[in-house]
């Protein structure tokens, strides 16, 4: 335990670890000290002078963001002297700040506006004409208005320290000083847009939200980002059923304020004009729009007829649907269609890991563990490209705690910048090089191992054996690629495993076998695109039912296309890469679509399948009661928290089918089908995959 | 005897009443001849809103949503959009692409006018709003806008945006 010091702030005694800044100590006591340049988690700037406080026995006012708390210190935060100083600070900040709040996007949620209302004078002593500089567009997503900038350096610090991109800097001096992007007139970076969010004024504005609405006009919906598997919480700002922006200013969720370009800007696929809004049926070789009732009736008649003549079904599930939908889908297939031919696109070998760690508790890492672990080992994955939140957590851990990161990858990755050691190894051969790191890893107190899709099958077992031989607590993360890839495995969208890794009696066909089987009668694809890249079903005459958002390659082959909802439009839970279950809520609305749960529920009712009520709450209740490890506490989910599913408690005595594991190959700027229909991601100069190397 | 008294009393009452009538006949008329003649309004009468234009004919409204926020009955609906160099609609950086007032809800309180930072929305003297169909009571921007000043097109290409309140103290 660190040394504790006790100080008095506004008459309240506060005990904090030595070295804590007075501004943080005050926050702990429930006292808010205003500040523009101070930002929790980043280096101290002490540039704005807004957080000045009076400390007894110190002759001048002190900036509380740069003042470590000391034993016996007596701090006053709201004395007349302090208020006077803050008033003057605001007056100086407003010397050149234009009073264009009515047209400024930040108006209504602007820290400078709030502070002006709290302390500011209605009038200024400065009568000179304000210094003006024209607004600039740095990228399709970032605009900068130097006139509004108060030079707090928050954007520079999050970009440099937080992400390691360092795309922003300061140029010129005095009144002409302004923030400059790394390419002089434009930005080349991760385009994450965090700089826009941290800006306390309206100097940095978002190209997507720009002049669209005002903060009080929108509804805020807590959702989980539907792109990668990291499961960042994003708060959707919705107006009239349309997403206008997406950010997480309230720092709720496992990601705090962090979001990547896909989370912050990649939501526009929802309102793409190519979204399917009515069911399609193939008539005379062409897909024609029909009503929902006609489409469902058609599906029911074909499915019933196939069941009656004992036809063969195959079901391909989605990695982007909720746990409830996945659970219901496998129940629909196993109990309704009476087939175990069910699979999904697997992007990481979770099954072998669960088997190899059988009987242990606490061997799977959470996103939070990445920030608190004593060392981390990354095998065969480019975290900055594919798992931006995990990369951010590791970097933050290194920044704040100096915890080393060890990297074994086929090519150079961004983590090399600060990694304690970076080794290069052929894809699939990463585990072989671990012996070289043994001594360094042994010296740490604990370790988190993250491995990508190239480590699968026996390599996972060797990796766990290596971890055991180190003699320190080791936790693992099996990296998977899509938002609910992990949930799809846990919910049993597998031919040989039911929900909770329970082996089924007669295993069905896996994905490759389904593709190659020549005698399937009905292929049911619920939100996946197995025909991507020109592949084909070997069953030429199979009746293909597809739930999709867009007319993908698979939907074009379909006989019936049912327009489904994206994750942003429905309620449910998803499981992220670390097995953390989180709840997502419905934000926007797209006319004519139905959730996969509703589609399956309506069909089950018409087909007479007795598989339970298709309501999200009822299915979640069943999951919590029946699926191993999913008895997660509801209050945690309800309050927007993440609860890790404890799936480790027994052997999984099946072949893990590691050959079925195929990485998606997505980058920071692509996201499978959804990314293709996001115009904003496509228009970036960095797309589809160039990662900026500082 | 009581009968004469009664007659005199009645006559006195009539005379008293008629004196009021005759006095009022001498005073100027204060009621209007509406609908035969147009009504006369006080300057500050709060009638149908008018969205004002500036001297160039550009719309004054910059779609800041303050009127809609101030409105106690939520009858103002706005959609904002960005002015482009090719087509400049308002003096500020943004303009109201959609501006609707629902007169079946408006209570003519004038809060929107007070809230407006650019004096774009004002109360006019229009009052003939009655309709047999409530859907016609939602007035669009085109119905609310002031007529263009003489010779103006309402679409002006400026060298730089006019910042609202720039240099104001």
Description:
- The complex is a heterodimer of chains A (694) and B (169).
- With 694 residues, chain A is of the alpha/beta class.
- Chain A is 26% helix and 18% strand.
- In chain A, strands 15-14-27-26-25-16-17 form a 7-stranded mixed β-sheet. In chain A, strands 2-1-5-3-4 form a 5-stranded mixed β-sheet, sandwiched between helices. Chain A has a 5-stranded parallel β-sheet with strand order 20-19-18-21-22, with no helix packed on it.
- With 169 residues, chain B is an alpha+beta fold.
- Chain B is elongated.
- The A-B interface holds A 98-103, 107, 123-124, 126-127, 129-130, 132, 134, 147, 210-214, 216-217 and B 62-66, 68-69, 80-82, 92-94, 117-118, 160, 163-169.
What would a concise description of this structure say?
Chain A is an alpha/beta fold and 694 residues long. Chain B has a domain at 48-144: Alpha-Beta Plaits, CATH 3.30.70.3270.
Q: Given the helix and strand composition of chain B, which structural class is it?
A: alpha+beta
* Spatial order of strands in the largest sheet of chain B: 2-3-5
What's the total count of β strands of chain B? 5
Span between N and C termini of chain B?
A: 85 Å
Rounded to the nearest angstrom, the distance between the terminal CA atoms of chain A is 38 Å
Helicity level of chain B: 10-25%
Write the layout of secondary structure elements.
The complex is a heterodimer of chains A (694) and B (169).
Chain A: E1 4-9, E2 12-17, H1 22-28, E3 52-55, E4 62-63, E5 74-76, H2 80-93, H3 111-119, E6 136-137, E7 142-144, H4 154-162, E8 168-171, E9 178-181, H5 194-198, E10 204-206, E11 219-224, E12 233-239, E13 242-247, H6 261-265, E14 280-283, E15 286-289, H7 292-308, E16 313-316, H8 323-336, E17 342-343, H9 350-356, H10 367-372, E18 376-379, H11 383-386, H12 388-401, E19 405-409, E20 421-424, H13 438-442, E21 447-451, H14 458-469, E22 474-478, H15 485-490, E23 497-498, E24 502-503, H16 511-516, E25 522-526, E26 543-548, H17 553-557, E27 560-563, E28 572-575, E29 580-584, H18 596-607, H19 616-626, H20 634-638, E30 643-644, H21 672-676, H22 679-682
Parallel strand pairs in A: 1-5, 16-17, 16-25, 18-19, 18-21, 19-20, 21-22, 25-26, 26-27
Antiparallel strand pairs in A: 1-2, 3-4, 3-5, 6-7, 7-10, 8-9, 11-12, 12-13, 14-15, 14-27, 23-24, 28-29, 29-30
Chain B: H1 2-26, E1 48-51, H2 66-70, E2 76-82, E3 94-102, H3 111-115, E4 121-126, E5 138-139, H4 141-144
Antiparallel strand pairs in B: 1-4, 2-3, 3-5
């Amino acid at each position: 335990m660190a040394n504790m010091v006790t100080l008095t702030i506004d008459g309240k005694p506060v005990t904090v670890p030595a070295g804590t800044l007075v501004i943080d100590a005050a926050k702990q006591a429930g006292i808010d000290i205003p500040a523009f340049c101070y930002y929790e988690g980043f280096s101290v700037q002490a540039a704005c002078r807004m957080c000045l406080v009076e400390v007894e026995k110190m002759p001048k006012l002190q900036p509380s963001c740069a003042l470590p708390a000391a034993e016996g210190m007596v701090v006053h935060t709201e004395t007349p002297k302090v208020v006077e100083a803050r008033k003057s600070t605001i007056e100086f900040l407003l010397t050149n700040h234009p009073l264009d709040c009515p047209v400024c996007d930040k108006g209504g949620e602007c820290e400078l506006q709030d502070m002006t209302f709290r302390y500011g004078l209605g009038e200024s002593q400065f009568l000179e004409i304000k210094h003006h500089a024209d607004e600039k567009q740095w990228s399709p997503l970032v605009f900068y208005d130097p006139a509004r900038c108060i030079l707090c350096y928050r954007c520079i610090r999050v970009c440099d320290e937080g992400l390691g991109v360092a795309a922003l800097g300061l140029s010129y001096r005095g009144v002409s000083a302004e923030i400059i992007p790394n390419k002089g007139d434009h930005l080349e970076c991760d385009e994450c847009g965090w700089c826009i969010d941290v800006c306390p004024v309206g100097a940095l504005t978002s190209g997507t939200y720009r002049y669209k609405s005002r903060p009080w006009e929108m509804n805020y919906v807590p959702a989980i980002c539907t792109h990668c598997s990291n499961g960042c919480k994003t708060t959707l700002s919705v107006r009239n059923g349309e997403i206008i922006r997406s950010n997480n200013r309230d720092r709720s969720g496992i990601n705090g304020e962090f979001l990547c370009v896909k989370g912050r800007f990649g939501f526009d696929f929802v309102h793409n004009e190519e979204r399917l809004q009515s069911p399609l049926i193939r008539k005379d070789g062409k897909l024609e729009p029909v009503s929902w009732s006609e489409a469902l009736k058609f599906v029911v008649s074909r499915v019933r007829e196939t069941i009656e003549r004992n036809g063969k079904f195959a079901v391909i599930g989605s990695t982007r649907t909720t746990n409830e939908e996945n659970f219901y889908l496998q129940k629909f297939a196993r109990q309704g269609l009476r087939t175990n031919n069910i699979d999904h696109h697997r992007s990481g070998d979770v099954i072998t890991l669960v088997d190899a760690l059988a009987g242990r508790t606490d061997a799977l890492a959470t996103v939070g563990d990445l920030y608190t672990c004593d060392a981390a080992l990354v095998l065969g994955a480019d975290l900055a490209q594919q798992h931006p939140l995990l990369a951010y957590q590791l970097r933050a851990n290194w920044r704040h705690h100096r915890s080393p990161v060890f990297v074994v990858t086929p090519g150079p990755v961004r983590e090399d910048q600060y990694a304690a050691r970076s080794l290069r190894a052929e894809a699939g051969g990463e585990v072989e090089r671990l012996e070289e790191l043994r001594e360094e890893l042994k010296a740490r107190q604990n370790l988190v191992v993250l491995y990508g899709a190239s480590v699968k099958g026996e390599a996972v077992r060797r990796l766990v054996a290596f971890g055991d031989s180190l003699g320190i607590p080791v936790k693992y993360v099996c990296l998977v690629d899509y938002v609910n890839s992990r949930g799809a495995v846990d919910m049993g969208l597998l031919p040989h495993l039911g929900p909770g890794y329970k082996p089924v009696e007669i295993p069905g066909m896996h994905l490759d076998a389904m593709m190659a089987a020549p005698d399937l009668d009905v292929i049911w694809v619920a939100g996946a695109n197995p025909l991507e890249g020109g592949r084909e079903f070997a069953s030429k005459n199979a009746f293909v039912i597809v739930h999709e958002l867009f007319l993908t390659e698979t939907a074009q082959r379909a006989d019936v296309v049912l327009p489904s909802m994206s994750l942003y439009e429905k309620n449910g839970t998803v499981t992220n890469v670390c097995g953390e279950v989180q709840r997502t809520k419905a934000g926007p609305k797209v006319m004519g679509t139905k959730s996969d749960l509703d589609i399956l529920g309506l069909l089950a009712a018409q087909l007479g399948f007795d598989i339970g009520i298709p309501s999200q709450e009822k299915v979640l209740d069943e999951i919590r009661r029946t699926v191993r490890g999913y008895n997660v506490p509801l209050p945690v989910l309800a309050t927007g928290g993440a609860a890790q599913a404890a799936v480790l408690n027994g052997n999984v005595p099946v072949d893990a089918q590691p050959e079925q594991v195929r990485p998606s190959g997505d980058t920071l700027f692509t996201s499978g089908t959804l990314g293709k229909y996001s115009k904003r991601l496509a228009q970036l100069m960095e797309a589809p995959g160039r990662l900026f190397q500082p | 005897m009581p009968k004469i008294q009664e007659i005199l009393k009645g006559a006195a009452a009539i005379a008293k009443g008629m004196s009021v009538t005759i006095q009022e006949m001498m005073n100027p008329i204060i009621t209007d001849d509406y609908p035969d003649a147009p009504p006369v309004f006080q300057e500050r009468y709060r009638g149908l809103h008018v969205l004002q234009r500036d001297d160039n004919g550009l719309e004054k409204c910059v779609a800041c949503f303050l009127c809609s926020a101030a409105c106690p009955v939520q009858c103002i609906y706005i959609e904002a959009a960005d002015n482009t160099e090719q087509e400049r609609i308002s003096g500020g950086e943004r303009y109201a692409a959609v501006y609707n007032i629902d007169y079946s809800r408006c209570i003519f309180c004038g809060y929107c006018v007070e809230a407006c930072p650019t004096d774009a929305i004002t109360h006019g003297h229009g009052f003939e709003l009655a309709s047999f169909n409530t859907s016609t009571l939602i007035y669009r921007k085109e119905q609310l806008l002031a007529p263009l000043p003489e010779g103006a097109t309402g679409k002006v290409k400026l060298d730089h945006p006019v910042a609202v309140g720039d240099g104001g103290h």
